[in-house]
Amino acid sequence: MVVLASLVTANIFWIFNVIPSFATGLLMLCSWVVLGAVNFVTSFNIFSTTTMWIIIGGLALGAAATKTGLINRIALKVMSYLPASFRGQSMALLVSGTIISPMIPSAHPKTAMGTPIAKGISDALGYKPKGKGSSGLFMAAIWGFLVMEASFLSATAQNYAFKGLLPIKYQNVLTWGNWFILMLPWTILALILGYLLLVFLFKPQDDTPVSKDFINKQLTEIGPMSRDEKITAAVILVAIVFWILGSSIKLEAAVTALIGVSILVATKVLSPDDFKNRLSWNTIIFIGTVMALGNVMQSVGLTKWLYIVLKPVISPILSNIWITVIILPIVIYLCKFVVVSMISTGTLILLCLLPFFPSMPFSPALLILIITTSVNIWMLDYMDAPVITGQAAVHSSMVSRAGMAKSSLGYMVINIIGLLASVPVWYLMGLIK
């Protein structure tokens, strides 16, 4: 009851942003110790796990990619290959965002970088602020740089946070390579249907290609690849290869990331000040406090209590994978109207389902995939913090509220379609009984 009371209180603080989220999380963990629910080692155990170190290492690699300009170069290069029209550049934003996603495990810098690029393209194409063309390019940037991060384990820290809530035996299913394969049908459909949706909703009447001067000028200004860019690109590519091969070569993903970071420091691509200023330490601490919930809830018996209370409602949803991939996303969509934080929403849902893991006819690891794709909606302005960041980066001058709502509703439908298409792959990989 102590753990449950502190969890409820923490969620009220998170929903209404009473104090910074990481401070609320730390107070929650401390309250368990002070009130005698668990000891310090149990409460703060998560901070000694590999999950926390892969988050720190991944964020540092992403900081290097952003600092050196590598990310900006990749995005502009992709755009230079496609026509300077709404169709061409919306596709370019989708593709470049998807390519960049696994390199930066944080949504905010990606949207902060992607939407100004979209703004420059919109201005070059002569689109009116908040018109169809401008709204469509903004949403293409959001779709590519934010939505598609669900395709890769390393694309966002929240994927590691959700994975960290699972018991170890289920975590081992979600290696970098397995995650990519499990999500491949969803990825393909999200890209194709997302592109068709944006074209249907936002394509201007006159979509004649214009000059690519804007893009070419940007590429000319940044010049050839610098030494730091080349080193960063090499380190990230090697890291991704080792993440894919991690289970077969028995090398922890966290070790790969930290070796990569050490190389970047040794070659002076990253400095000590970069660690202080470019890594979001408050986010890292917040994620750690959230991940601590799973272990503590089990240790005090709260999961058994939740199982008894929730069984009549949840058991039918989890009785069949086809039902789960339809109903669970809808439940998450409704929760997002109340619990704004994506990590908080996903954590609450997963903790409620935790007691049902042993009786489920499929691997609980699949719940992580469903949750991570479903928490990312933006029906209303306040519902998605990275989208708010993207809006702020262009001074809220690109997309209309109606455009936001329509594209979010379209994504919510496409997400369920993509999850349904993924079920046969999950069967083939032996994750469904």
Automatic annotation (TrEMBL):
InterPro entries: SLC13A/DASS. Its main location: membrane. Keywords: Membrane, Transmembrane, Transmembrane helix. It holds the Pfam family Na_sulph_symp. The keyword Transmembrane helix applies. It is a multi-pass membrane protein. It is found in: Membrane. The chain crosses the membrane at residues 12-34, 46-65, 137-157, 177-202, 231-247, 253-271, 283-307, 313-332, 408-429. Signal peptide: none annotated. Belongs to the SLC13A/DASS transporter (TC 2.A.47) family. NADC subfamily. This is Sodium-dependent dicarboxylate transporter SdcS.
